[in-house]
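Data card: per-record layout.
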Amino acid sequence: MIPNKKQTTPPARTDERLAKRVAEMVPCSRREAEQYISGGWVSVNGKTVEEPMFRVADHKVTIDPDASLMEVSDVTLLLNKPPGFDATAELGEANKRVKPAQQLLKPETHAADDASGVRLLKRHFSNLESTVELETGASGLVIFTQDWRILRKLTEDAGVLEQEVIVEIKGEVPQASLDRLNHGLASDGRPLPPVKVSVNSNAEGSSKLRFAIKGVHPGLIAYLCERMGFEILSMKRIRVGRVSLSQLALGQWRYLAPYERF
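The structure for this 262-residue chain is written out next.
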């Protein structure tokens, strides 16, 4: 027979959920307390905590005096992607050959001069989608969004949204080649998307061309340059629609400002 063991009563918990503490402090409902916390308005021992289930005991809990119950809006993040990163790969696809650009989105790479006025929250790095492709070897503007309206705009208007790309090529650019590009080229008898090309700058041994093109897809600009006999040294996308990269540093990101429209 198994001898009877003396039952012991587990010690009573002295901590509680952060949402319960906040609800008592305001006071408000538990649901409203969770909104305050997930909105980034609550700090524990001086550090912002966004998880309502976080446990607190004798911690110092502070609620921002500007705290609001307004629903946290979905955001759009603009990244200056370095070469070598896949613009649309999901984080779960990361391996030795695929480096998702999304892995660069973190608080440490947030541009210090971001003028959008958006408060950085942990939730801004989840459920992000990117649809505007960019060559892995290229750098420049990549868009990640949680907003279904912007996602639909970028998807449905992909064929008419103009993109601006700076392409550095080896050597000088003959005027005849520029004229051919601007006149329009065809492939297998089918016209390629119209393109506006101009010389952006010249340096010793290289030239920078500014491509403005609608309906672009990865490989198209490289194909056009190959047709002209241009050797590409680098490629950088600086604008999608009416939204530009501006002075965003390589590898950094900023929020799409409320007044910006694609």
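Known properties of this structure: The chain has a mean pLDDT of 90. DSSP finds five helices and 15 strands in the chain.

See the next section for split statistics.
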